[in-house]
Structures are given as structure tokens and as C-alpha cells.
């Protein structure tokens, strides 16, 4: 593995609240609360490094309030941070409400802050030097400045022949952007990594396999993340592989899809075929749901 992975995306501060019962309106609900580094783009980068990719770079934007902390956390996770410091906006913050029931499902309250203020002025073509894969967080498409940056980055990668992957990131924000606008951008990428809900939203097809197959007529490789149902790999309008989920005991599903993506991309860079890489992704996703927060534990694999 001699080439680098460059991730362009969001860096945020997660406030993870694992509530110990149903939310009680108008009064207190007991919870265990932790403040952790997060952001879909940053999480993907950290999981790729955790999964053995020796050269992972991240371009993101943070506020001056926590820039040093985020840079240190990324560096200690094996990621080379390239963080633009916003002079006006604070670092984005996400409140993650996590149900402590069997599913450990999470709900996000998102203040994107500086993360969606990335713009073309934050980009340098030198970031692509030595890069063999580029990954874009779909959150970039949800504001005008970062959408303009994503277009510049995509064009620069295509000019160098660097394959590009894209994660839609958020079904809620995707609805606001519009399916047609998203798909128009996605036609320029090589790998699409939607969740089951995002695949449904992008195609209108209720069956995940049908949705993945349809998307693979627009993007060469589609890998649909299905959580406890594993993953689907689709190419050329057909399902190429069905990957079972790895065994897991959920504590917090925050970042499970990011873990899948990071491990999947690290495996591709190491020479794995998509089916093998998706199996690695499922393993990372299972590991992620067993820990609190969206980042991996700092243990050498």
C-alpha cells in the first residue's frame, strides 16, 4: 500500500447523550453524556487509519474554539489533518441522542458551524500529491460554499485519474438538497456508499437490492450499508455480492457507517476486491457500534 487516501469533509464536536429511558418532555431524563471528536469525514479518515492505511489525509474546517483539540485528536489517530480555521464560525456541534435499548439507535441534532463553510479557497491541488483515492463526505453538498469546493476537488481528482468515492451522509439533509441535484453530482464519482434509507430516497425503490442495482447504472460501484443486515455490492445494474453483518453488541450506532466506509476504502487501497472490502467494512461497523462515539479506539490492528 504505497498511495494515500485523502478525505474531504466535516469535522465536528459530538455531544453523545445515552439516555437511560424514554425522553421525558418538560422534565429530566437521566443520561450518560460525553463530549467526543466526530464528523462523518473525520470519522472515515480515522477508521481508514485504524484499518491499516498508512497515509490518510483530511481536509476540513473548524472554529478557533477547538482547532487545537481536533488537530491533536486526528494526529493521534494516525491522520494528517489539514484544517482551515474559521475566523467567524465555531466548530460544528452535533448532539447525538442514543437510545440505550437493544438497537442503540441514534438521533442527531446538528449545528454544522464551520464545517460547511469550507470553500474553494481552502483547496490546494498539492493535497492530491501521492493520493490513490479521494473520498468526499456528502455533507459537503449541503451548503453553497462547500458544494463549490466539492466540485473543484472532484474536477482536480478526475484530471489526475484519482478514483473518487462519495457518501450521501444524511437522508434528512439530502431531502433538502434534492435527489436530482445529488445524482447529477454523483455521476462524476466512481464509488457511492449510501445507507439503506439514502438508497431508497435516491431511487424511490423500497427494496434495497433494487435500489442498489438502479444506482449502479449511474455510478460504477455502489455499496449499500444496511447496518444489522450487512451490505450490498452492486455494479452495472446488478447485485454483485450480499455481505452479512458481523456479530455485534450495540452500545451506540453513531459513526457505524463511517467505520464501514473507512475500512472499505483502506481495504481497496490494500488491493482487496469490492466484496472483500465490504466484508472488512462490516467488521469495522460491528466494532463501531460496540463503542461510544464515532471514532475507533486507538489500538494497532
TrEMBL record:
<dbReference type="GO" id="GO:0016301">
    <property type="term" value="F:kinase activity"/>
</dbReference>
<feature type="domain" description="Carbohydrate kinase PfkB">
    <location>
        <begin position="5"/>
        <end position="295"/>
    </location>
</feature>
<dbReference type="InterPro" id="IPR002139">
    <property type="entry name" value="Ribo/fructo_kinase"/>
</dbReference>
<dbReference type="InterPro" id="IPR011611">
    <property type="entry name" value="PfkB_dom"/>
</dbReference>
<keyword id="KW-0418">Kinase</keyword>
<comment type="similarity">
    <text>Belongs to the carbohydrate kinase PfkB family.</text>
</comment>
<dbReference type="InterPro" id="IPR002173">
    <property type="entry name" value="Carboh/pur_kinase_PfkB_CS"/>
</dbReference>
<dbReference type="Pfam" id="PF00294">
    <property type="entry name" value="PfkB"/>
</dbReference>
<protein>
    <submittedName>
        <fullName>PfkB family carbohydrate kinase</fullName>
    </submittedName>
</protein>
<keyword id="KW-0808">Transferase</keyword>
<dbReference type="InterPro" id="IPR029056">
    <property type="entry name" value="Ribokinase-like"/>
</dbReference>
Amino acid at each position: 500500500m504505497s498511495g494515500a487516501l485523502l478525505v474531504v469533509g466535516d469535522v465536528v464536536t459530538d455531544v453523545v447523550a445515552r439516555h437511560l429511558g424514554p425522553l421525558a418532555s418538560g422534565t429530566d431524563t437521566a443520561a450518560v453524556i460525553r463530549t467526543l471528536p466526530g464528523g462523518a469525514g473525520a470519522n472515515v479518515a480515522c477508521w481508514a487509519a485504524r484499518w491499516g492505511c498508512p497515509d490518510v489525509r483530511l481536509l476540513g474546517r473548524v472554529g478557533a474554539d477547538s482547532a487545537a483539540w481536533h488537530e491533536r485528536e486526528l494526529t493521534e489517530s494516525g491522520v494528517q489533518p489539514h484544517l482551515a480555521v474559521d475566523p467567524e464560525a465555531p466548530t460544528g456541534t452535533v448532539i447525538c441522542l442514543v437510545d440505550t435499548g437493544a438497537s442503540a439507535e441514534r438521533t442527531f441534532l446538528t449545528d454544522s458551524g464551520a464545517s460547511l463553510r469550507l470553500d474553494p479557497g481552502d483547496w490546494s491541488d498539492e493535497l492530491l500529491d501521492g493520493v490513490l483515492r479521494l473520498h468526499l463526505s456528502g455533507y459537503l453538498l449541503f451548503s453553497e460554499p462547500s458544494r463549490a469546493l466539492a466540485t473543484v476537488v472532484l474536477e482536480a481528482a478526475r484530471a489526475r485519474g484519482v478514483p473518487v468515492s462519495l457518501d450521501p451522509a444524511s437522508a434528512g439533509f439530502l431531502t433538502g438538497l434534492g435527489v436530482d441535484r445529488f445524482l447529477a453530482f454523483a455521476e462524476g464519482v466512481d464509488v457511492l456508499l449510501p445507507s439503506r434509507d439514502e438508497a431508497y430516497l435516491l431511487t424511490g425503490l423500497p427494496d434495497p437490492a433494487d435500489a442498489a442495482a438502479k444506482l449502479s447504472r449511474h455510478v460504477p460501484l455502489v455499496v449499500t450499508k444496511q447496518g444489522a443486515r450487512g451490505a450490498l455490492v452492486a455494479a452495472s445494474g446488478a447485485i454483485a455480492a450480499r455481505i452479512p453483518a458481523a456479530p455485534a453488541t450495540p452500545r451506540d450506532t453513531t459513526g457505524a457507517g463511517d467505520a464501514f466506509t473507512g475500512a472499505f476504502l483502506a481495504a481497496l487501497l490494500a488491493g482487496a476486491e469490492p466484496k472483500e472490502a465490504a466484508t472488512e467494512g462490516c467488521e469495522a461497523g460491528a466494532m463501531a457500534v460496540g463503542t461510544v462515539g464515532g471514532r475507533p479506539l486507538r489500538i494497532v490492528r
